[in-house]
Structure formats: structure tokens, C-alpha cells
Amino acid sequence: MGIKKRISIFIFVLNGIALTNAQEVLTVQDAVKIALENNFQIKTARNELKIDELGTTPGQAGMLPQVGANLADNNSIQSLTQVRNDGTVQDRDNVKNSSFNYGVALEWTVFDGLRMFANYEQLKETKKLGEAELKQAILTTVGEVMITYYDLVQQQQQLSALDSTLIISEQRVELAQNRFTIGKASKLEVLNAQVDLNTDQTLMQRQQELYKNTKTQLNEQLARDLKIDFRVIPEIFVDQKLILDELEAKVAEENPQLQAEKINKRISELELKQIKAARYPSIFVTSGYNIGNSKSELGFATSSDSKGFSYGFGATLNLFDGFNQNRNEKMGKVALENAEIAIAQQEQALTSLVNTTYQTYLTNISLMELEERNEAIAKENLEITVEKYRIGIIPTIEFRTAQLNYINASVRLSNAKFQAKLSEIVLKQLAGNLEI
């Protein structure tokens, strides 16, 4: 059997063993699902949103009345001397006095220049901001998980290429040794073949180390046991149908960072409304029900009981506060202007990033197609070179060159696919429509 055929069979068997391995097959969809359930950043963002939701109530905005209960029990023991109008004198020691009062009281601000309504709208906008921040946390985490996942795919492909070249290098050492034994090759040819084999084994070990470390990194992103072993799918599929105009439209509508800036502008508008509300009077009503009892061993009345309702209203109006109102309104307008600037800045930054990333995306797709052709050529060249080396009509340096060309072409192809996928992920992440 020829060396070329033996190598092909060995690679086929090796790939078959890998496919039937008992390791967990982790798809990118599975990885994303696990990340959405376990990732610490997403959990924190969800809890922050819950806090915002719990705080979005009319009561938190100051629109509802405040009702409180009160209770007071006071006692005293005194020595007193009293001189009355008729000239009589009372002199008593250890006189006991006591009073006991309890009840409920209500206070309700019924008008505050509409500040409470602006505050309630601000709480709603804060909740929307929390939703945008949660979406951003999810997109960021999912993007990181996908990038790490496809990095593993390309590393797995490089390991496969290194496996192939190791087999060829081992066969080359065997052939060189056989040729030396029968006197058709020098000892130098054997040594060169062994050195090249050792080099390939070193590259394999380095690549295996990187592969294992990247697995640990992905497990960390998934917030699960770092020692869980798994394997990923063998190929990277790139969406080659992205259109720049559609991406830009999606960014304007869906990008959570841009949405957050727009929400911040709305919050600045509502804060300015609350500042302006201080120019109007604040009107409040009060009511309550109280029960009281008092006792005294000295005086015209030795005991007293009371109970009943109380009610009233009041108003306050700031007439002069050292021009602070004017200053606060001016600062609020400047803050609103800054919010508008932040939106324009974010829009420009996102548009720039989408355009540059899209150009990189197109370049990567073109390179991916080019490297596919290069790998096919390098593979064919290697097969021809192996056969020529077997029959002894080419030098070892030409054999090694063809071998290195093949492995380099395979690595460049896997890297080109990864870079194209990376550009796709970033573009969809910016557009806010990353598949989740």
C-alpha cells in the first residue's frame, strides 16, 4: 500500500475516532443557552432591572398620601408648691402626673407643581434604561461566548491540520530510515526528518495547550465547572448576506447603547421639569384621629380624656432662595444639552464602527474564498510531493516546503473563517439582533 493511501486511511480513522468520542458535543446554541442562565453579569443586570421595576410606583414618586401611627406615654413624679389667687397654699410631695396619647395621622401633598408626575415618568424611564442595560449585557456576553466558541472551532481545525502533518512527518522518518538502511539515503536525511518531526510535535503540544486553555475560558464565561470537557462543531459557517444599509438602520433602531443615550436625554428632560416645579406652590392636606388621657394629683382637674378627628391644609411657596432656582434651571438645561451631544456622539461612533467592521467583514469573506483555493492547491501539491518523495526523485527540503505550505494554508483558512465569523458577530451585536 502506498504512503499516500496509508496516510489518507489513517486520517479517516482518526477523524472517525474523534467523532465518536464520548465527550460532550457543545453547540453554539447550547453555549448561549447556558450563558443566559448562568453568566454572572447577566444575573446582575437582571437583578438591577428588578430593583428598577420595584421602584417604579406612584408611591415612590410621591403621589400617594403618607399615613403614620403615633403613641406617647409620659409620666412624672414631682414635689409642688402652689399659691392660688385667694391666698391659699398647697404644698405636696411626690405628686404623680401621667398622660397617654395615641392615634393615626395622614399627610398628602396634592399639588407640587407637577413634580410628582415628572418623577413618576422618570422612574419609568429608569426602568427602560435598565432594560437597555440588560439587553447590552446579554449581547456583550453572548458575543463573547460566540467568539470564544468559534475560536475553539478554528483551533480544533488547526489541531486536525497538525495531526495530518504529524502523520506525514512520522511516515517521512520511517521512509528515510528505510532508505538509509538499504543505502539509498544518508544519515543526514534521517536526522533532518527526525528534527522536522520533533518540530511538528512541539507545535502540536503548544496548540493543544492553547486549545485546553480556551476551553477553560469558555467554561468560565458559561459560569460552570471549569473542568468540564467537551468538543465543538467541526466547521465555521459565515453569514455572507449582510447588507450595510440594513445594518445601519438596525443600529439606529435596536442598538442598546444608543437607546440608553436617548433614554438618558428623556431623564434629563424630566429632571428639568422637576426643577421648574419649585416655582409653583406646594399644597398639602392633613387629617388624623387621636385619643388622649391624662391624670394629675394636683390641679383643678385630676383627669382628662379626649378623642376625635383633626383636619386641615397648608401651602408653601418659595419666594426667594438666593437665585438658586435660576441657577438650577440653567444647569438642568446644560445637562439636557450634554445628553443631546452624547446621542450625536454615540450615533457617529456606531456608524463609524459599523462601516469599518463591514469593510473588514467583506475583506475577510474575500480572503476566506482565496484561502479555500490556496488550501486545495497546497493539499494537491503535498500529495504529489509525498508520492515523489516515496520514489526518491525530490530532495527532503522540497518535501518539507510542501508540507509546511499545506499546514500554513490550512491554518490561514481556519483563521480567515474565524475572522469572517468574528466580523459577522460584531456587526449583528452592534445592530442589536444577535441570534439569542
From TrEMBL:
Residues 1-22 form the signal peptide. This is TolC family protein. It is found in: Cell outer membrane. Its main location: membrane. One of its GO terms (cellular component) is cell outer membrane. Belongs to the outer membrane factor (OMF) (TC 1.B.17) family. Pfam families: OEP (PF02321). Keywords: Cell outer membrane, Coiled coil, Membrane, Signal, Transmembrane, Transmembrane beta strand, Transport. It comes from the Bacteria. It comes from Flagellimonas hadalis. Gene3D superfamilies: Outer membrane efflux proteins (OEP) (1.20.1600.10). SUPFAM superfamilies: Outer membrane efflux proteins (OEP). Residues 336-387 form a coiled coil. GO terms for molecular function: efflux transmembrane transporter activity; porin activity.
